[in-house]
Amino acid sequence: MHIKNIITDQKRLFLRENVPKEYLIDPYLGNPKPVYALALPKNHDEVVGLIKWAIDKDLKIIVRGAGTGVAGAQFPIDGNELVIDLKLMDKIIDLDEETLTLTVEPGVLVGDIHEFVEDKGYFYPPDPASKHSTIGGNVATNAGGLRAVKYGTTRDYVRALKIALPTGETLDLGSSNIKSSSGYDLLNLFIGSEGTLGIITEIKLKLIPKPKENVSVIMSFEDVFKATDATLVLLKSGINPSEIELFEKEAAKYATEFLQYDLPTKKGNAYLLVELDGDDQKELELRLKTLLELMKPYALEIVSLLDEDKKQRVKKIRDNILIGLMEYTEYEMLDEVVPINK
Ligand SMILES: Cc1cc2nc3c(=O)[nH]c(=O)nc-3n(C[C@H](O)[C@H](O)[C@H](O)COP(=O)(O)OP(=O)(O)OC[C@H]3O[C@@H](n4cnc5c(N)ncnc54)[C@H](O)[C@@H]3O)c2cc1C
């Protein structure tokens, strides 16, 4: 079968030299490599058709969401590839308000999921700074984000996946059940597998009720060591922050340059952005009071971000650190994880 019989709409199919450059250029390595073809399927059956076609042609497959990954996994290597871009599979299929399950296609942007569910009083906590990444890419990389300290990562919110396997077979894993203790945990094997085990074509996400209240502060510290000492105190205190983000002045300066505005504190060399959330305003105020007391010996300055606009501007600085670094420096971005006391 010809690929034109699988993707019949020619606007969704590019062959050889017609494949747009943005699919070929790794931001770090440069080096555009040609590929055999690029296809933008619109449903599971087209994905399966493409996989079978690639098997027949002996092509490798590269899966792509929004292409925000900084590890190069969505770029071709040797030219003998079919790139499958899932951005047109962008439907929110169903919101089941009884089981609190949202069913989506993989190309829906995570920022759009937040907006959709929060409008209805629900909450999807994983919040990677790349709001324009796809939920399929988030599942494939087990994205975390600002709220991971309290709510965990994408893995904790995936109830079920539909997967097109490299053989062209279809695998359904998980369900809308709250728990499952039976059998091997294949669902979690696929989460974080970065497109190496199959193509995720449908996702059931767990939602929770949206916390009614939240309050944020930004604190400045003499140096990063004071800020990490303060973080250990906060984590042990029982005030249960929904966000703790640590960043240094050196890193924030690229984001502030990019955004053209400053942080609301000029002191120190390291910052903690902390958010508390909950349903009871009084209880939240008590936790905030505890936080302010606990931080007195550590912080040079504590600025409450009571105004929503001010809070969003500070969060935007945190979200844009990576973009600022990419824009103004030649650093190669790598994620590192260490125990909280190191
Ligand atoms: C500015 C910026 C800020 C970020 N901040 C954070 C952060 O705070 N926390 C965090 O954890 N991460 C963060 N990231 C990383 C981010 O989580 C990933 O880039 C994102 O999840 C990838 O999604 P994508 O749609 O862009 O996928 P792509 O970049 O297109 O692909 C990434 C990988 O997933 C695979 N893939 C994509 N879709 C599918 C699918 N449907 N089925 C199978 N495999 C698939 C691809 O093959 C590739 O291996 C950030 C990235 C940027 C650029």
Helix-strand category: alpha+beta
> What is the spatial order of strands in the main beta sheet?
5-6-10-8-9
Shape: globular
Low-confidence stretches: none
Rg (C-alpha, Å): 22 Å
Order of helices and strands: EEHEEEEHEHHEEHEEEHEHEHEHH
CATH architecture of the largest domain: 2-Layer Sandwich
- State the CATH topology of the largest domain: Uridine Diphospho-n-acetylenolpyruvylglucosamine Reductase, domain 3
The distinct bound ligands, ions and cofactors come out as:
flavin-adenine dinucleotide
- Would you count the extended β strands for me? 15
In DSSP terms (H or I, runs of 4 or more residues), the helix count works out at 10
So what's the oligomer here?
A: single chain
Fraction of residues in helix: 25-40%
State the end-to-end distance: 56 Å
CATH class of the largest domain: Alpha Beta
Biggest sheet statistics:
5 strands, antiparallel
Mean pLDDT score: 94
Beta strand %: 15-25%
Short recap of the structure:
This protein has 342 residues and is α+β, with helices and mostly antiparallel strands. It has helices at 44-57, 110-118, 135-141, 148-151, 186-190, 224-236, 249-259, 281-295, 308-319, 321-328, and strands at 13-15, 37-39, 60-64, 81-85, 92-96, 101-104, 122-123, 158-164, 170-174, 199-206, 208-209, 213-221, 243-248, 270-278, 301-304.
Describe what this molecule looks like in 3D.
The chain is an alpha+beta fold. The chain folds into 3 domains: 9-85, Uridine Diphospho-n-acetylenolpyruvylglucosamine Reductase, domain 2 (2-Layer Sandwich); 92-209, Uridine Diphospho-n-acetylenolpyruvylglucosamine Reductase, domain 3 (2-Layer Sandwich); 213-328, 2-Layer Sandwich (Alpha-Beta Plaits), CATH 3.30.70.2190. The protein has helices spanning 44-57, 110-118, 135-141, 148-151, 186-190, 224-236, 249-259, 281-295, 308-319, 321-328, and strands spanning 13-15, 37-39, 60-64, 81-85, 92-96, 101-104, 122-123, 158-164, 170-174, 199-206, 208-209, 213-221, 243-248, 270-278, 301-304. The N and C termini lie far apart (56 Å). It binds flavin-adenine dinucleotide (FAD).
